[in-house]
Amino acid sequence: MSARLVLLGPPGAGKGTQAARLAEELGVPAISTGDIFRANIKGGTELGRTAQEYSSRGALVPDSVTNAMVRDRLAQDDVAQGFLLDGYPRNAAQVEELDAILADLGLPLDLAVEITADPEVVVERLLKRAQIEGREDDTEDVVRHRLDVYAEQTAPISQVYADRGLLAQVDGIGDVDDVTRRLLAAIGSLAR
After folding, report:
1. Which of 13, 69, 175, 186 could form a disulfide with 9, with the two C-beta atoms 3.0–4.6 Å apart?
2. Is 135 part of the annotated catalytic residue set?
3. Can 90 be counted among the known catalytic residues?
């Protein structure tokens, strides 16, 4: 089954963990913007140098650079049978750009899957992860701010995909294997 998917969800919902599991199960590459940035920076590409300029100042990489990196990544051969985008699109402008990229490639998006999670559970998860991994900058205030930014900028994207009939929402709370099974069931519905 080919699958062209967008994975949405708040920080701490388990997107990274589930993206890796789903990509393996579906036989498609998981593509995260963070990985794309790191690969371009390491490879010394022009886009990588531009991204490095912003990130070294602690600034967000502009949409134009992110969009160009995603466009380049989606044009590579290994995505011919599908992909799972994790961390993109993050705002309405990026949704429009992804639409344009996919139209240019002649590829439709199959589904946007949103991993939902109770904000209090997410805060607890992220604080525990910060403690385990020694992330001293991930304080409760920082975590709650990240959730607010998600709610303001990224969460509205789910409504865009819902309006197109392309949104599946899956509860991200519980055992990792159970969440994976719920996600695969939601994705499997597109094959029917």
Report:
1. 13
2. yes
3. yes
CB 32 within 8 A of CB 16: yes
Catalytic residue among 4, 21, 73, 90: 90
Select which of 42, 49, 128, 129 is catalytic: 129
- The reply, when asked if residue 17 is annotated as ligand binding, is yes
For the entire predicted model, the pTM comes to 0.87
**Mean pLDDT within 184-189:** 89
More confident residue, 154 or 113: 113
For the packed helices 63-74 and 46-56, what is the interaxial angle rounded to 10 degrees? Answer: 140
Distance CA 50, CA 140 (A): 32
Over residues 61-71, the pLDDT tens digits come to: 889 989 999 99
Q: How far apart are CA 54 and CA 179, in angstroms?
A: 35
192: pLDDT strictly greater than 60: no
* 88 among annotated binding-site residues: yes
